[in-house]
Design a protein that fits this description.
The chain is mostly beta strands. The protein has a domain of 55 residues. The chain contains one helix and four strands; from the N terminus they run E-E-E-E-H. The chain is elongated, with a radius of gyration of 19 Å. The two termini are 25 Å apart. The chain binds zinc ion. Zinc ion binds next to loops.
Length: 81
């Protein structure tokens, strides 16, 4: 359990229910997934990439106890690098 935090890292997201501060799950509703393929000379296909478009709600959950952390989602997105 993380109890003592290093100074200067007061901004870490911590699950208020179980104290988890390492694993989080993002769940997106109504996702449109487009996949791009190129056909090779032998008739096989190579996957070239994906594009996703999220049209629905995006939720955030604790990866340890599944507590709903959607309240923190905006801050979560701002801290993804
Ligand atoms: Zn939790």
């Amino acid at each position: 359990m993380p109890s003592v935090r290093p100074p200067g890292i007061a901004n870490r997201l911590v699950c208020p229910a179980c104290g988890n501060d390492e694993e989080f799950v993002e769940l997106a509703h109504d996702v449109l997934l487009t996949s791009y393929y190129r056909q090779n000379s032998d008739g096989s296909f190579s996957h070239e990439g994906d594009a996703t478009q999220i049209n629905g709600e995006v939720l955030l959950f604790c990866g340890a106890c599944q507590e709903d952390l959607t309240y923190y989602h905006q801050r979560f997105r701002e801290m993804i690098f």
